[in-house]
Design a protein that fits this description.
The structure is a single chain. The chain is α/β, with parallel strands linked by helices. It has a single domain (2-81, 141-217), classed as Rossmann fold (3-Layer(aba) Sandwich). Helices cover 29% and strands 25% of the residues. The strands form 2 sheets. Strands 6-7-8-3-9-10 form a 6-stranded mixed sheet, with helices on both faces. The protein has a 4-stranded antiparallel sheet with strand order 2-1-4-5, covered by helices on one side. Helix 5 runs parallel beside helix 6 (161-174). The structure holds adenosine-5'-triphosphate. Belongs to the ABC transporter superfamily.
Length: 218
């Protein structure tokens, strides 16, 4: 269970806090959605939860334990917006083994299968894959580390309709095993996956009422 307690981020260089006293709870195998316009603080929130930035007040807890940024780096896996821009392996095997040269090929096959890329050759070039395959590979890069919490920044951005649908089906499958927190400016297609949602506006987080199943099919 992820628990944010009055989490704030107010660097000395900004007159207003970027995140203001955020409270949020996300249970195991839940998918939470944070919806906010550009500049509302979504990426900053994910960077703090991934242990890449330091909050200036408040706490991040996992079950009742307060987590340091170093512990968050172990606990969470962050998939950046347009993750394919950060690929640096020459082939799929290198990409998945970056930082983890000890990983066995069996382990790698399992990670690829979990994102529907079990058929992919280890020697395929990451940059030569389709947009949807690249997003799946970026997910596998994080899943291979077995994080407790998967953080996704605008996972469907820039994909065409059919690749977005495939990714949504995959996220639906992944939430059976992982807790996921997704940030987006456009919740339209992701809302059907969400167990809980919040709006982020100028760094202020408020609960967002999810439509009922009947409203979604209407
Ligand atoms: N360390 C920092 N110092 C100063 N300003 C910062 C810092 N980190 C983030 N900001 C500012 O905080 C605001 C929120 O940025 P952030 O990238 O988190 O927003 P976002 O909701 O993810 O936007 P987008 O959807 O456009 O990516 C921006 O105005 C950004 O310039």
């Amino acid at each position: 269970m992820l628990n944010l307690c009055d989490l704030s981020y107010h660097p000395a260089s900004t007159p207003q806090p970027i995140l203001q006293s955020l409270n949020l709870q996300l249970g195991p195998q839940q998918l939470g959605l944070v919806i906010g316009p550009s500049g509302s603080g979504k990426t900053t929130l994910l960077e703090i939860l991934a242990g890449l930035a330091y909050s200036t007040a408040g706490e991040v807890r996992w079950r009742d334990q307060v987590l340091t940024p170093e512990a968050l780096q172990q606990l969470a896996g962050l998939v950046f917006q347009f993750p394919e821009r950060h690929f640096c392996g020459h082939n799929v095997l290198e990409e998945l083994r970056l930082g983890h040269p000890e990983l066995s090929k069996n382990h790698i096959v399992t990670a690829l299968e979990s994102v529907g890329l079990g058929h992919l050759s280890f020697t395929s070039e990451p940059h030569a894959l389709s947009g949807g395959q690249q997003r799946r590979l970026a997910l596998a890069v994080q899943l291979i580390r077995q994080p407790y919490l998967l953080l996704l920044d605008e996972p469907t951005a820039g994909l065409d309709w059919s690749m977005r649908r495939q990714l949504i089906t995959l996220l639906k499958k992944l939430k059976k095993d992982w807790s996921l927190l997704i940030v987006t400016h456009d919740a339209a297609e992701l809302i059907e996956l969400a167990d809980c949602a919040w709006k982020l506006d100028h760094g202020v987080l408020t609960p967002y009422a999810l439509p009922s199943a009947a409203e979604m099919t209407a």
